[in-house]
């Protein structure tokens, strides 16, 4: 097995373990939550599947971006992180058969994170010259704007519940790079440049998400005893 095949296997295994760790924490109430709150469901779909693609197309039309970055933004906007409901259904089945399996969620998440880092580092090292070549010509600003708007829109549409706001903000700003590459594969001839553009947007989004997460965590710490309102 080649090094590239090992890296691909590690990424796939990492994704599988992340799905498993999330699933093992699922409860039956999670499945019905959004269906009992149709307003939040509609706002979530609007935030992730309407606003972000419209934003990417608008940026491509209004600004003089590099074509490969335009393709990356539009592909990422069409590639949201996979929905939680199928993962939770898997988790409910496992918990029903082996309730004690929920204790494995934490260790599985840790192993998944380590695998993802180990697999991502060689890719970043190899593609770093191509990523650096994209810096400039408004590329980083465009990637930052895409991510900031995603966080802001998700936060605004999340409703009054702080947890809903945080989750929807991060879900809206986070996109699936592998799916984005598959979407844009046929329309871009320079696949290495496309990979570099996707990685640039993902890196910028990850960096900008850190202060948002810390801000939300401080807000929770200041009011741990306050009951969070639930609204549709």
Fold and architecture overview:
The protein is an all-alpha fold and 232 residues long. The chain has one domain: Na+/H+ antiporter like fold, CATH 1.20.1530.20. It contains ten helices and no strands. It has helices at 3-24, 28-33, 38-62, 67-77, 84-97, 105-134, 139-157, 162-173, 177-184, 191-222. Helix 1 packs across helix 6 (105-134), helix 6 (105-134) packs across helix 10 (191-222) and helix 9 (177-184) runs antiparallel to helix 10 (191-222). The model is unreliable at 82-89 and 91-95 (pLDDT under 50).
Topology of helices and strands:
Layout: H1 3-24, H2 28-33, H3 38-62, H4 67-77, H5 84-97, H6 105-134, H7 139-157, H8 162-173, H9 177-184, H10 191-222
Brief summary:
The protein has helices at 3-24, 28-33, 38-62, 67-77, 84-97, 105-134, 139-157, 162-173, 177-184, 191-222.
Q: How many beta strands in the DSSP annotation?
A: 0
How do the SSEs run, as a string of H and E? HHHHHHHHHH
What's the total helix number? Answer: 10
Form type: globular
- Global structural class: mainly alpha
Structural key phrases:
Na+/H+ antiporter like fold, mainly alpha, 77% helix, 0% strand, 10 helices, 232 residues, single chain
